[in-house]
C-alpha cells in the first residue's frame, strides 16, 4: 500500500486573522475605509461587496418608496446601513425597517432587536445571500428577511429564526399581497415590487 504524505492547507499554514465588531469600528474610526470602500464584516472576515448595478439600485429605490409610504411612522426605513451582529459581523442589508427611535440610531447602529424586517436584493450573488447572509440573520434572531432575486424575479420570505436557520420560507405568488409579520398594516402587492410604481 502506498502511503501518501499530505501537505497542510494554506489556511493551516497561515491562519486567517478574524476581526470582531469593535476592532472593525476602530478601523472605520481611524479612517482606514472611506465611503467608497464597499466592504462588510461577515463572521470575522471583511467581504468585498460587488458594485451596485442600475437594476439593483432601481429596485432599492422602488422598495424604499413603497416601504416609506406604507410604514409611515410605524418604522424607520434604513438604506444600505450597517446592522451590528455581535461579536463578529456587521452586514449592510439593502433595506431595513427599524423600530422608531428618538435618536434615529445616531448613537449606535441597529441590532437584531431593533429590526422589523431586513431586505436583501440579489442580482449576482443569490447563493451567497441564501447560504451565508440569511442563515447569519437567523442565528442572530432577525425576525424576518425578504430576499429578492432579480434574475428569477422571485421573492422569498424567511420567518421564525433559530440557530439552524429560518423555520419558515415562503415564495409568494405574483398575485399575492405581502405583509411583514411585525408590521401588519404594511401591505405590498407583489406586482408593485416588480412593476412601475405610479
From TrEMBL:
<dbReference type="InterPro" id="IPR011335">
    <property type="entry name" value="Restrct_endonuc-II-like"/>
</dbReference>
<protein>
    <recommendedName>
        <fullName>Putative restriction endonuclease domain-containing protein</fullName>
    </recommendedName>
</protein>
<feature type="domain" description="Putative restriction endonuclease">
    <location>
        <begin position="22"/>
        <end position="190"/>
    </location>
</feature>
<dbReference type="InterPro" id="IPR012296">
    <property type="entry name" value="Nuclease_put_TT1808"/>
</dbReference>
<dbReference type="InterPro" id="IPR008538">
    <property type="entry name" value="Uma2"/>
</dbReference>
<dbReference type="Pfam" id="PF05685">
    <property type="entry name" value="Uma2"/>
</dbReference>
Amino acid at each position: 500500500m502506498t502511503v501518501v504524505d499530505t501537505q497542510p492547507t494554506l489556511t493551516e499554514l497561515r491562519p486567517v486573522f478574524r476581526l470582531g465588531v469593535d476592532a472593525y469600528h476602530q478601523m472605520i474610526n481611524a479612517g482606514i475605509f472611506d465611503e467608497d470602500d464597499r466592504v462588510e464584516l461577515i463572521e470575522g472576515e471583511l467581504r468585498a461587496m460587488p458594485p451596485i448595478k442600475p437594476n439593483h439600485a432601481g429596485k432599492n429605490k422602488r422598495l424604499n418608496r413603497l416601504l416609506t409610504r406604507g410604514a409611515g411612522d410605524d418604522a424607520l426605513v434604513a438604506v444600505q446601513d450597517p446592522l451590528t451582529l455581535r461579536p463578529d459581523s456587521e452586514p449592510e442589508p439593502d433595506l431595513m425597517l427599524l423600530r422608531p427611535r428618538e435618536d434615529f440610531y445616531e448613537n449606535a447602529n441597529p441590532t437584531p432587536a431593533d429590526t422589523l424586517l431586513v431586505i436583501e436584493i440579489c442580482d449576482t450573488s443569490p447563493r451567497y445571500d441564501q447560504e451565508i447572509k440569511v442563515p447569519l440573520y437567523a442565528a442572530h434572531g432577525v425576525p424576518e428577511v425578504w430576499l429578492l432575486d432579480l434574475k428569477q424575479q422571485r421573492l422569498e420570505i424567511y420567518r421564525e429564526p433559530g440557530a439552524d436557520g429560518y423555520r419558515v420560507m415562503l415564495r409568494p405568488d405574483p398575485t399575492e399581497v405581502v405583509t411583514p409579520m411585525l408590521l401588519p398594516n404594511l401591505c405590498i402587492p407583489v406586482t408593485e415590487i416588480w412593476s412601475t410604481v405610479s
